[in-house]
TrEMBL record:
One of its GO terms (molecular function) is mRNA binding. Belongs to the PPR family. P subfamily. It comes from the Eukaryota. This is Pentatricopeptide repeat-containing protein mitochondrial.
Amino acid sequence: MEEKGCKPDTVTDNTIIDCLCKCRLVDQALGLFLQMSKKGIMPDVITCNSLIQGLCDFNRWQDVNQLISEMAIRSISPDVHTFSILVDAYGKEGMIKDAEDVIESMIQRGHYPNVVTYNSLMDGYCLEGEVDEALSVLETMKRRGAVPDICTYNILINGYCKKLRVDRAVDLFQQLPREGLSPTIYTYTILQGYFLTGRHVEARNFFDEKMMLNKGLKIDMVTCNTMLDGLFKNRWMDEAM
């Protein structure tokens, strides 16, 4: 580019840094980040978000904290996406208190969590088996004006199924039309909780192909595998075949 008289700018370096992080070459991305200022190219919040995501993927929390401090020094303000990355990363690592602290911090800074932020926190609670806490997050997000989406309910339905609280999962499933939401193929697949509790007749009825097709859903490989696994484990060999 430089040989052709085209000087790289922030967008150029952001593109490369994002690509390096997605290719798990985070140290090279950090190296380019440090070179930007020397070249007179100023990093922005998009630069930092890519790096934070890359560092979180490797659980490099000390480097994450250092980068956030560097953002403050450079007067780069984190945005909702920055906070959502952190909430998601902390939640997946079972660091729920840290995730909650991030949300409180973003509210104090005048940034309000969106549905992605709340979904990440709910997913973290469900991964820890604290599904009722995740449900309370749903109520909180509604009070604060964030509108839940189908991913929100998929997270909760999946969480309750894993806790073998299938009836609660079905209640949430039946709540979808009232929320103006339509189930996805994933919503049906995660209701394998019926099989986990030995209720294979109800499971078979729920996974009715015609019903799903009527709702515009196409059964995929994961759905079929879930059905086969459940039928075989419950010794419904002919039905499985």
